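Final report, closing paragraph on structural work. Over the funding period we assembled a curated collection of sequence-structure pairs, and we close with a single example.
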Amino acid sequence: MKRMLLLVLATLFAASCATGPSRERDLVNRALDAMGGAASVAKVKTITVKGTLKQWEPEQSNAPGGEMRFANDAEFTMTGDFTSHAVRVDWVKKFAYPAPRTFTFSEIVTPAAGYVVGREANNLNRQSMEQKSPAHSMSGLRLATNQRELRRASPSLLLEMQRNADRVSTNPDIAIGGVTYSAVRYQAGSYDFIVMFDPKTGLPARIRTLDYDNVWGDANYDLVLSDWRTMGGVRIAASQKYELNGRVIQDARITDVNTNVQIAAGTFEPPAAVKAGAAKPATGSVPYQWVIRRQFIGTYMDSDSVSFDTRATTSLRLNEIAPGVQHVVGGTHNSLLVEMSDHLVAIDAPVTDWQTN
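Its predicted structure, as stored:
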């Protein structure tokens, strides 16, 4: 009887192992094989990617319940160095909202800091206004957000998962649109990704994070990968769409990829005037969707206070419009303060309680 019990326990243990770490490992390995093999992905040391992008703001519309507000269409060229983990994205963005205008600028992201060179928004922060040519270091919130999104979309994410198998854990299968995806969870530092795999090809199909949205609360944010093609010697998803709770809010099309290219000196070097004192990546609670989507409409105030510029000494300020009535201006949204006999009334709707506090 004792021997029988041991055999049963051994069988159960073997079954649990078969659906445990080995399952996750097999899914990652199959995906890498479908992408051309881990060795081929590992050979890529530098990369340039060209493409186009369209973006929408899902919580604005021209009519109640109508289609999402179209924000902009853009062209981009991304240059990346996988050895130094530095990326530069050169943008030409044609905004449709809140007013038609075109901005040409560059983003530089390194492990330690991030920078913006050129005009990218209507409401420039203080550091940009002080430069002869607009430029500023990124806030810690934006840097952390950009680092997460670059990691999500990197062809080396699966290779990273293979090399850090201890950070890969099981996740229940996920059904979307009639398709059931096998999924794994990957803890990449402070970032928590859920990677779903195409049941037919084994390729990564969706890479999900759970983000906070100002209106909807917790929301699924998915990078949807499809139309895999061999470009620059590697398999790349030419179609990369981003869904927020199932609605496409970004549609990127990759048109050209070159690998192991020579990168010009200074590509990742920002102007000296904005390099000193650049913020480190933010930790803790990062409002990713706010950072991502305010850039869709070119009104992002790149600050770690979210709703006002921490680098300006007179950002939020009182503007008296009548005796005892003050307009709070200088941030992303306005508030109204009314003085009563023994208390104040604050009237505002600045998306969240950031500015209220």
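Residues 316-357 form one domain. Residues 1-20 have pLDDT under 50 and may be disordered. We thank the funder for supporting this effort.
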